[in-house]
Amino acid sequence: MFQLSVQDIHPGEKAGDKEEAIRQVAAALVQAGNVAEGYVNGMLAREQQTSTFLGNGIAIPHGTTDTRDQVLKTGVQVFQFPEGVTWGDGQ
């Protein structure tokens, strides 16, 4: 069963742009053993297909179906960027 732990939550982070934010999230997913290192490429590719921005300051970056084989176990990493991150089109 999936459980969110304190180690999965990253408040007060900083990123200069969405690519940097995605790379930070990907690194945390790798460190937690959720994905292989190459998964970040799928996350960046997915963002090029269409934005993962949901609204109200929330985005859920994730990989493409082509990188699904790099997912090792279910998990999430929650990042909070108090200064915000421009996600494109003024988002």
TrEMBL record:
Gene Ontology annotations for the cellular component aspect, listed alphabetically: plasma membrane
Gene Ontology terms describing biological process: phosphoenolpyruvate-dependent sugar phosphotransferase system
EC number: 2.7.1.-
Keywords of the record: Kinase, Phosphoprotein, Phosphotransferase system, Sugar transport, Transferase, Transport
Domain PTS EIIA type-2, first and last residues per copy: 2-91
MF-aspect GO terms: kinase activity; protein-phosphocysteine-sugar phosphotransferase activity
One Pfam family linked to the record: PTS_EIIA_2
Signal peptide positions on this chain: none
Name of protein: Multiphosphoryl transfer protein [includes: phosphocarrier protein Hpr fructose-specific PTS system EIIA component]
Origin species: Escherichia coli
